[in-house]
Amino acid sequence: MTMKVSASVVALVSILLMLVPLAARADEFIVGDDQHWRFGLNYTAWAYEYTFVWNDTLVFKYDPPNGTNIPHNVVLFNNIHDYDACNINKSTLLANVTQGAGEGFRIRLLNLTPYYFACGIHEGFHCRNGTMKFTVITLD
Ligand SMILES: [Cu+2]
After folding, report:
1. Which Pfam families would you find in this protein's record (predicted)?
2. Domain that holds residue 111
3. How far is the CA of 57 from the centre of ligand 1 (A)?
């Protein structure tokens, strides 16, 4: 009996220890690093440089419209087909042109299915011609 309890405790502690690194991690990534969210940066290449795990946070930073800059937003596609084709009319708006200001627009990665991000400005022009699109696969 004593041996059985001890074995159970050891097993439980082992499981908890395995969970600790995941529970403890909640890294933040500024999309595009110091380049932020802008027309022309290759965000697919940017995303390849990192490994994203459950509960990490992406931060999209971009200036609100001020009369001279190029505004951006953040959209999410449901599937790779609409992502590949930059079908903005099939996407969901996550953050409008003003929400990237200040601390930026933040999204926690809580889905283990792929995320298909893009900028939806000018009916997909930024997505198609500005390489403002990237996929994130979140590991658990
Ligand atoms: Cu844009």
Report:
1. Cu_bind_like
2. 25-139
3. 20
Distance 20 CA to ligand 1 centre (A): 38
CA of 56 to the centre of ligand 1 (A): 23
Query: 72-110 in b/e burial notation, b at 16+ Cβ within 10 A?
Result: bbbbbbeeeebbeebbbeebeebbebebbeeebbebebe
* Digit-coded pLDDT (tens) for 45-79: 999 999 999 999 999 999 999 999 999 999 999 99
Q: What is the mean pLDDT of the chain?
A: 91
Residue 41 belongs to some domain of the structure: yes
CATH code of the domain containing 122: 2.60.40.420
79 within domain boundaries: yes
Q: What's this model's pTM, rounded to 2 decimal places?
A: 0.83
Q: Specify the number of domains making up the chain.
A: 1
